[in-house]
């Protein structure tokens, strides 16, 4: 209030649904409906909140605006290493000081973990950008944590929610937990995601129980169906943890 007298701010409390990170599901929730993604087009810039053209920005983006206005775009651009500005990295797992750290865009995992008090145990794997970004091996610890560098190895910066995993953790179990998360968070609106997330989770369950590789025989096909046929990004990326773990840690899935 009174920050910008000509602009009104309205704060709405959400209920923690992962799917409402998708912009049109967020609009549905703001309108008092169940948070489910809309078919696109039309896009929110054409038909958004209450049918009006709507711009949707992440809170992190909005938070950068005052300093950019005060100091200029060139100043902000120089803060980053491999791109403009800083990035809010949230790091958890086997480190001494889990938390949220603002650092130059493009720092490495080792630099971020050093800021977070160091590793606990020996690094085996890490998730660079949240549940949907997949898993990478320790050999990528010096790779810049930005969109371009991570895309080169099939990963994503995503929400920059970094999870560090040491050698006490089975990648099979880590994958199973992530697949359970996506199954629970799927809104169920479209069949590829609703059925696919359950199939992938059941497949890893059967594999862990039987150690039979044949139980994973169709996961790549189902992942393709989910990527091509799902309405929103959740279905597109829900199989990435399983696919990436099998790629970088094949010994755990043989």
What is the CA-CA span between the terminal residues? Answer: 59 Å
Report the sheet-strand fraction.
5-15%
Q: Which superfamily, in CATH terms, is the homologous superfamily of the largest domain?
A: NADH-ubiquinone oxidoreductase 51kDa subunit, iron-sulphur binding domain
Which CATH architecture of the largest domain is right? Up-down Bundle
Average pLDDT, rounded to a whole number, is 94
Sheet with the most strands, sense and barrel status: 5 strands, mixed
Tally of strands: 5
Helix count from the secondary structure assignment = 10
Describe the structure.
- The protein is α+β, with helices and mostly antiparallel strands.
- It has three domains: 18-51, no CATH class; 86-166, Ubiquitin-like (UB roll), CATH 3.10.20.600; 171-253, Up-down Bundle (de novo design (two linked rop proteins)), CATH 1.20.1440.
- It has helices at residues 23-30, 59-71, 73-77, 109-115, 147-151, 171-185, 191-210, 219-229, 233-237, 240-248; strands spanning 86-93, 99-104, 123-127, 136-137, 161-166.
- A five-stranded mixed β-sheet has the order 2-1-5-3-4, with helices on both faces.
- Strand 3 and strand 4 form a beta hairpin.
- The radius of gyration is 20 Å and the shape is globular.
- The model has no long low-confidence stretch (mean pLDDT 94).
